[in-house]
From TrEMBL:
Subcellular location: Membrane
Family annotation (PROSITE patterns): FAD_FR
Regions crossing the membrane: 24-44, 50-71, 92-113, 133-155, 167-185, 197-217
FAD-binding FR-type domain sequence ranges: 222-322
Required co-factors: FAD
Protein name: Ferric reductase-like transmembrane domain-containing protein
Principal subcellular localization: membrane
Pfam families: FAD_binding_8 (PF08022), Ferric_reduct (PF01794), NAD_binding_1 (PF00175)
Length: 445
C-alpha cells in the first residue's frame, strides 16, 4: 500500500469550533439588537398585546433567517462546527421559532380584538380578509406547525426519512410566505428606508447562503470534477469499497475524516443520497468510501458498474485534524465507524494509538490495511473483540491500554451506543472536553 506524506497542521490553542460558535452567537445577538432599535424607532402600537405581538413576530422572523444559515452547509461553518451539531442547533432553534410564532399570532389576535371589541376568532378572520399578507402568514404558521409536529422525536421514529424530508421542504414555502407578510404588513420595516434596506439585506444574505451552500457549490464542484466510479471492491460478505476518480481532485477541499452525500446516477438510485465517510485520506487522484450493507441503498453499491457517474455533495464534517489541540492522538472506532478513523490514521504523523472495537475478528473491516498502515507509521493498534457487555472500554480497561489518555486528543467514531459509552469513559478519566472529538455516526457514517 502506498501512502502519501502530507503536511499536518500543528495543534492549535484557539479552537476553530469556539471561534465559529462565538461568531454565530455574536451575529444573532447583533441582529436582535438592530431589530429592537428599528422597532423602537417605529413607535409603539395602541396596546401592550399588540406591542408584544409585533416584537415576537420580529424575533421569529430573525430566528427563521438564522435557521436558514444553520442549514446552508457553508464550508467555513461546517468544517469548524460539523453538520451534526449544526443540524441539532437547527432543530432546537426551530422549536424556539415555533413558540415565538405562536406567541406572535396569539398576542396580535387578542390585541386587535381588544381594540375592536370583537372576539379573537372574528378578529382573526377580519385581519385575514382585510390586511394584506395576513392570510399568507396564517398559511405559513400552519405549515411550520406541521413541520414541527413531524420533527418531534415520536414522529421521527415512525416516519421514513424520505417522508420526513419531503414534508420538511415545505418550510421553504413557509419562509417565502412569511417574508411577504413581513414586507407588506410589518410597520417596523415599512416606515424607514434604512430599516427596509436592512431587512431585505438580512433575508438576501440568509437565502443567498442556502442557495450557495445547497445548490451553487455542489453543482459547480460536480461540473468541475466529473466524478465516476473507477472500481468496486468487496471487503467482506457485507462490506464494499467504492473508488471514485475525476478531474482535478487535488483541488477538491476534502480532508481525512470528512464525508460526502453520494448520489450514484443509475436509473434506480439517482434520486437517493447516502452519507458515507472517506475511508482513505484524499490523495488528489481518487476518493474511496467503504460501506456496510444496511438496506437496499447500501446493498446496491456492490453492483455499481465502473464508469457510473457520481454526484457528490460535500465534503462535510468537522471530524478532522483541524481541531487537534495536542501532538499525540488516540483514535477509537467501533464497527464500520473505522472508515473515517482509518483515513485519519493515514493523515496523522505523530505518535498515534488506535483502538478498534468489534464483536468478532470477522467484523474488523479493513483490518489488514490498518495493520500495514500502523506498522508503517509506528502507531499502536489494539483490536478489542467480544460482546457489548461487559464494557471492554470502561475506564480501567482504557487506562490500561492508553495510560496517557488524558494527554492526547481523542477521536471517536462508532455506533451511537458505543460512542456514548466511550464519551462517558473519557470524562471519568479526566480527558478535557476540548481534546474529545466526535461526530454522530448516524449522520456521518
Amino acid at each position: 500500500m502506498t501512502t502519501v506524506e502530507r503536511v499536518q497542521p500543528p495543534p492549535t490553542a484557539v479552537r476553530p469550533k469556539v471561534v465559529a460558535r462565538a461568531g454565530l452567537y455574536a451575529l444573532l445577538v447583533a441582529n436582535a439588537g438592530v431589530v429592537t432599535v428599528f422597532f423602537v424607532q417605529a413607535g409603539f402600537a395602541s396596546n401592550a398585546l399588540i406591542v408584544l405581538g409585533r416584537l415576537a413576530g420580529l424575533y421569529a422572523a430573525l430566528l427563521m433567517a438564522f435557521q436558514l444559515l444553520l442549514v446552508a452547509r457553508l464550508p467555513w461553518l461546517d468544517h469548524r462546527i460539523g453538520m451534526d451539531r449544526l443540524t441539532s442547533w437547527h432543530r432546537w432553534v426551530g422549536f424556539g421559532l415555533l413558540w415565538t410564532l405562536l406567541s406572535h399570532a396569539v398576542f396580535i389576535t387578542f390585541g386587535y380584538a381588544q381594540s375592536s371589541s370583537m372576539g379573537p376568532v372574528d378578529e382573526l378572520v377580519e385581519l385575514a380578509e382585510t390586511v394584506e399578507g395576513v392570510l399568507r402568514a396564517i398559511v405559513a404558521l400552519l405549515l411550520i406547525l406541521v413541520v414541527g409536529a413531524v420533527s418531534a422525536r415520536w414522529a421521527r421514529r415512525h416516519l421514513a426519512y424520505e417522508t420526513w424530508h419531503f414534508i420538511h421542504l415545505y418550510t421553504y414555502v413557509a419562509v417565502v410566505l412569511a417574508f411577504t407578510h413581513q414586507v407588506t404588513a410589518g410597520t417596523t420595516f415599512t416606515t424607514s428606508p434604512a430599516a427596509t434596506a436592512y431587512w431585505w439585506t438580512l433575508w438576501g444574505v440568509a437565502l443567498g447562503a442556502v442557495c450557495l451552500g445547497r445548490l451553487v457549490l455542489p453543482l459547480w464542484r460536480n461540473l468541475r470534477h466529473q466524478l465516476r466510479v473507477s472500481a468496486v471492491v468487496p471487503e467482506s460478505d457485507n462490506v464494499v469499497s467504492v473508488y471514485i476518480t475525476g478531474r482535478d481532485l487535488d483541488r477538491l477541499p476534502a480532508r481525512a475524516g470528512q464525508f460526502f452525500l453520494w448520489r450514484f446516477l443509475t436509473k434506480d438510485r439517482w434520486w437517493q443520497a447516502n452519507p458515507f465517510s472517506l475511508s482513505a485520506a484524499p490523495d488528489g487522484r481518487r476518493l474511496r468510501l467503504t460501506a456496510k450493507t444496511a438496506g437496499d441503498g447500501t446493498a446496491a453499491l456492490r453492483h455499481l458498474k465502473v464508469g457510473t457517474r457520481v454526484f457528490a455533495e460535500g465534503p462535510y464534517g468537522a471530524f478532522t485534524t483541524l481541531h487537534r489541540t495536542r501532538s499525540e492522538t488516540l483514535l477509537i472506532a467501533g464497527g464500520v465507524g473505522i472508515t473515517p478513523i482509518r483515513a485519519l490514521l493515514e493523515d496523522l504523523h505523530d505518535h498515534v494509538v488506535l483502538i478498534y472495537r468489534v464483536a468478532t475478528d470477522q467484523d474488523a473491516v479493513l483490518y489488514d490495511e490498518l495493520r500495514e498502515l500502523a506498522h508503517a507509521k509506528g502507531a499502536q493498534l489494539h483490536l478489542v473483540t467480544g460482546p457489548a457487555t461487559p464494557d471492554k472500554l470502561a475506564p480501567r480497561e482504557l487506562a490500561r491500554l492508553v495510560p496517557d489518555v488524558a494527554e492526547r486528543d481523542v477521536f471517536v467514531c462508532g455506533p451511537p451506543a458505543m460512542t456514548s459509552a466511550v464519551l462517558r469513559t473519557l470524562r471519568d478519566l479526566g480527558v478535557p472536553k476540548p481534546q474529545i472529538h466526535f461526530e454522530r455516526f448516524s449522520l456521518a457514517g
